[in-house]
Amino acid sequence: MDQALNQKIDAFIAANKEQILQDIAALVAINSVEGEPAEGAPYGVGPRAALDKTLELAAGMGFATRNCENHIGYAELAGADPEKYLATICHVDVVPEGNGWTADPFTMQIKDNYMIGRGVADDKGPMVATLYALKFLKEEGVSLRYPIRALVGDNEETHMRDVDYYLEHYKAPVFCFTPDAEFPVCNGEKGQFNGKLVSPVCNGEIKEFVGGVANNAVPDRASALVETDITKLSNAPNITLEPEGNGVRIRGWGKSGHAAMPEGTVNAIGLVVNYLLDNNLCNDAEREYLKAIQKLHSSTAGEGLGIQCADGPFGPLTIIGGRIYMENGRIVQTLDSRFPTCTDGETIEKQIKAAIGSGAELTDIGVNKPFYIEADTPAIKACIDTYNEVTGDHATPFTMGGGTYARHFPYAVSFGPEHAELPIPEFGGPMHGANESAPIDKLLEALKIYILALLRLEEIDF
Predict the structure, then answer these.
(1) pTM for the full model?
(2) CB-based contacts of 197, cutoff 8 Å, min separation 6
(3) Less Cβ crowding at N or C end of the chain, within 10 Å?
(4) Nearest to 212 by CA among 361, 363, 36, 332
């Protein structure tokens, strides 16, 4: 590594650290969960506000910025080649705050060198880091071969319509990385299968069933209201019983986490389903439906539904039930599966339908195929070599179950800044969970990696 350049980067990061944290806090303060479309805000006023704030921060650093018809935006650093450009892409929308926070999720806290707040890891902290990577290049007067755009998405957590709009109306970058996953470099993502398991109109004992805040997050709490006598019910682990009206509110208490990484989570909906079945709190139609979704909740590897499989590049399939609610007298359970290349959406659909039988209907199916880019391509090698150079590791690219913007571009990967091997502190939490946290020193290290990686990418013939 060029020692003079290394020292300049370290000095830049030290000088800008406090402002970086202030800028992240300013974005975290905006509740940017997707909302109802509004004038000039296709994904809701919160995501639009976060997009505006990010472009404001970028303009304050001296970048040319563009709001792409309120769907997405970017800050750009000019380069010599007018036909080709490099890009980074982050998102400033977030999943709902959910439950279990020990403080306001939209007021960033700092504790023991960790940031805590909704979006500090996913993906507002990384968004700010990419802006400061460009700021360093600008302040140093680096002569760029390719322009660099820091793309600002605001619909990643739900439908990614923002990037679909961008690629329909703007030329794609020759290479793009998204800081929205784990280091070192992710060069493949599992396929995605989602849908709903819907009950018939049962008119039974279950008067209300609610749980979960997002389809792609394991819920840590759920509850069902049933018409029964509380004195007839027994206690069960992670279940509480509360009298309510003419019945009992049955609450399940689990452990939340991301749908792509469900190992170690406890799905609260599954706890309530098991309790309802164990205590016969259902009529015949409800029982058949509960048995169907019990198969979903019995294993995050899909064994209950008969869809389990694994392959070399991607490992095992995963599946979770994210939200449950009642609508027009029917119970609706969402499901989110991440699948490897040994299966496909059509096969999963057939297997699930066979497993649930007539107890539930599978509806609203959505499928995204897996994607994979060979690890020895020049841009991926530039990213992994930079990561190893800065950290001293000897890491190799990996694949994952998470879905990022990378799958939408012709040539793209996800590139940090998370470190899966780092234990989460007791006061912190994971992406999509309560007390979402991110270590400050690792984000600053990522900023250094991004600066050096962009310099290395500028040298490649695309």
Answers:
(1) 0.79
(2) 289, 292, 293, 296, 321, 332, 333, 335, 356, 360, 361, 362
(3) N
(4) 332
Single-letter code of the amino acid located at 388: N
Q: Are the C-beta atoms of residues 335 and 367 closer than 8 Å to each other?
A: no
Task: Give the whole-angstrom CA distance, residue 426 versus residue 122.
Answer: 19
CA 255, distance to chain mean position in Å, is 17
* Separation of alpha carbons 320 and 307, rounded Å: 12
Query: In the chain, where does the domain assigned CATH 3.40.630.10 lie?
Result: 3-190+371-457
Number of H helices, E strands in the chain: 9, 27
Under DSSP, the state recorded for 146 is S
| pLDDT at 403 (0 to 100) | 82
pLDDT given at position 24:
98
Q: Which residues of 347-358 are buried (b: 16+ CB within 10 A; e: fewer)?
A: ebbebbeebbee
CA separation, residue 333 to residues 211, 253, 320, 371 (Å): 9, 17, 10, 27
The per-residue pLDDT for 312 is: 85
Rounded Cα distance between 198 and 223, Å, is 17
Cβ atoms 269, 236 nearer than 8 A: no
Give span(s): CATH 3.30.70.360, the chain.
192-368
Q: What is the C-alpha separation between 27 and 447, in angstroms, rounded?
A: 18
Q: Tell me what pLDDT residue 420 has.
A: 85
Residue 224 three-state SS: strand
**pLDDT of amino acid 99:** 87
pLDDT tens figures, 181-213: 999 999 999 999 999 999 999 999 999 999 998
Taking a C-beta distance cutoff of 8 angstroms, is the pair 225, 208 a contact? yes
CA atoms of 265 and 429, how far apart (whole Å): 12
What's the CATH class of domain 3-190+371-457? alpha beta
| pLDDT beneath 50: ranges in the chain | none
Residue 404's contacts (CB-CB under 8 Å, 6 or more residues apart) are 156, 178, 180, 181, 186, 189, 414
Dihedrals phi, psi of 449, to nearest 5 degrees: -60, -40
Q: Please give the structure tokens belonging to residue 254.
A: 């689990």
Q: State whether CATH 3.30.70.360 applies to domain 192-368.
A: yes
The Cα-based distances of 129 to 75, 120, 180 in angstroms read: 13, 11, 12
Look at the block and give the residue holding tokens 């800044």: 417
Q: Are strands 206-211 and 371-372 parallel, antiparallel or unpaired?
A: unpaired
Q: Report the distance separating Cα 262 and Cα 259, nearest Å.
A: 5
